[in-house]
Amino acid sequence: MAGAVIQALVTIGVNTIINTRASVDHECLIGDHVHIAPGTTISGGVKIGDNVLIGAGATIIQGIHIGASSIVGAGAAVTKDVREGVIVMGIPARVVKYS
Ligand SMILES: CC(C)(COP(=O)(O)OP(=O)(O)OC[C@H]1O[C@@H](n2cnc3c(N)ncnc32)[C@H](O)[C@@H]1OP(=O)(O)O)[C@@H](O)C(=O)NCCC(=O)NCCS
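Above are the sequence and the coenzyme A SMILES. Below is the predicted complex in structure-token form.
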């Protein structure tokens, strides 16, 4: 979407949206059916599984892996890997719910 920045060697799956002003840095792997919400910052080398929502304004530091079907809350700062099927939020992001 408008203002999104996608850097070199990024792979984006099918039915995935990179929303307004989001940035996805070098060598990220983004899965299928993912929503990268407005204003998010995805640092280099991040891997995001299928069916993930990265909430508005969240920041993911470099090299992190976000497991499939997880949700990163708006405004979160993710500094550690996130397993599948959980909701994380806050700074630094912590698990608040398991699905
Ligand atoms: C993280 C999220 C999924 C949690 O949703 P939820 O499970 O329905 O949580 P609730 O709304 O019931 O809130 C539960 C508590 O968490 C807090 N909370 C909710 N989202 C939060 C967030 N992103 N960061 C910090 N705290 C949050 C609420 O204030 C509430 O606190 P309280 O119990 O002290 O009142 C959701 O709030 C969120 O951030 N979604 C992303 C939305 C988004 O960016 N959409 C993009 C649209 S283009």
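Residues 19, 37-38, 55-56, 71, 73-75, 87, 89-90 surround coenzyme A (CB under 6 Å).
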